[in-house]
Design a protein that fits this description.
The complex is a heterodimer. Chain A is mainly beta. Chain A has one helix and twelve strands; from the N terminus they run αββββββββββββ. Chain A has a single domain, classed as Immunoglobulin-like (Sandwich), CATH 2.60.40. By secondary structure, chain B is mainly beta. Chain B has one domain: Immunoglobulin-like. In chain B, 14% of the residues lie in helices and 49% in strands. Chain B is built from one helix and eleven strands; from the N terminus they run αβββββββββββ. In chain B, strands 1-3-10-7-8 form a five-stranded antiparallel β-sheet, with no helix packed on it. Chain B has a three-stranded antiparallel β-sheet with strand order 9-4-11, with no helix packed on it. In chain B, β5 and β6 form a beta hairpin. Chain B is elongated. Classes of the chains: A mainly beta, B mainly beta.
Chain lengths: 170, 153
């Protein structure tokens, strides 16, 4: 009875264990998944306020050596999404300030700036000058205040030039 | 010997009956589509981008038992760049079984369920995910996984 009984008992308990495990499998917890994709393209947007025209009024060079634009500071909002590297805002003059045959060197036009990434500089007609630079994506607002050096050597006239802003991303 | 045989037979019978009693209780879930895209857009004009509606198909058998569906998601990643899962919200129908809205999390959040009851046959729920569209995201292709889990007691 001894060995046979033990063998039979073991088989019985093993069978019960197997059946109980099978019963537990019916209480299944199931899962479903979905994958979402979002493509962020490199892009940029530039807004210049309040005006795209700057006017420097006539003034006495002795008392006003540097003339500020009548429009006041220019507000610039640059929004960039960049993968790496930098987003850069530059400005380039088309020509010297010109009134017929008379010119004022465009380097007489300078600016100061406030705002994250914005920097001051001197205008050029040959090399685009950096107005602002950023190395992370975002929307940035700054102000640029232009001044024109005043001089008795300027011939009478109405001078103008065109400034082109370029916002670049890698 | 006869006593041992009888005991063993009884145990086998109980074991056979237990799975038979529970065979009716179960749950399963699926989602379609299994892949979707959030649309692109100008963050200034489209501050929220919304993906397509997902259909959740689920079925509970046996009972009367309740059921629960939870939802969780990973952060959206593109190489080293991350958009947190919490920038994603969802809306769901039908009420009262599905919670109307919520914010995605990396931990499981209650999405739907019933106490001590379930409808017969396959049931359907509908979920739509929306993502904040910010200028601060670096350019790249972001992906994340959303997991729906159905549980019964």
């Amino acid at each position: 009875m001894g060995a046979g009984f033990k063998q039979l008992t073991r088989c019985g308990w093993l069978l019960v264990a197997v059946l109980m495990a099978a019963a537990a499998d019916t209480r299944a917890q199931t899962v479903a998944t979905a994958t979402g994709t979002f493509v962020v393209a490199a892009q940029s947007k530039l807004t210049i306020l309040p005006s795209t025209t700057l006017t420097f009024p006539n003034a006495d060079p002795d008392t006003v050596p540097n003339i500020q634009a009548s429009e006041g500071p220019t507000a610039i909002t640059a929004s960039v999404r960049i993968p790496s590297g930098q987003g850069i805002l530059t400005v380039l003059a088309a020509d010297d300030l010109r009134s017929g045959m008379d010119t004022i060197l465009v380097s007489a036009l300078k600016w100061t700036a406030t705002g994250t990434g914005f920097t001051g500089g001197t205008m050029s007609k040959s090399v685009a000058q950096t107005v602002a630079a950023w190395n992370t994506s975002g929307s940035y607002t700054g102000t640029v205040t232009f001044t024109l050096s005043n001089s008795w050597t300027y011939a009478i006239g109405s001078y103008g030039t065109t400034l082109t802003y370029t916002l670049s991303t890698p | 010997m006869k006593l041992v045989t009888a005991v063993l037979a009884a145990l086998v019978l109980v074991g056979a009956l237990a799975p038979e009693a529970r065979a009716q209780q179960g749950a399963n879930i699926s989602v379609a589509p299994t892949a979707f895209s959030y649309p692109s857009g100008d963050p200034d004009t489209t501050p929220i981008v919304t993906g397509p509606q997902l259909t959740i198909s689920y079925k509970v058998t046996g009972g009367p038992i309740g059921w629960t569906i939870t939802v969780q998601g990973t952060n959206l990643t593109s190489g080293p760049d991350t958009i947190p899962a919490s920038n994603v919200t969802w809306t769901a129908t039908p009420q009262p079984y599905f919670v109307a809205s919520g914010t995605l999390s990396t931990t499981a959040q209650y999405l739907a369920g019933e106490l001590n009851h379930h409808a017969a046959g396959t049931q359907y729920g509908y979920v739509t995910f929306s993502l904040k569209n910010l200028w601060t995201y670096n350019a790249g292709t972001y992906t994340h996984t959303i997991t729906f889990t159905i549980s019964i007691p």
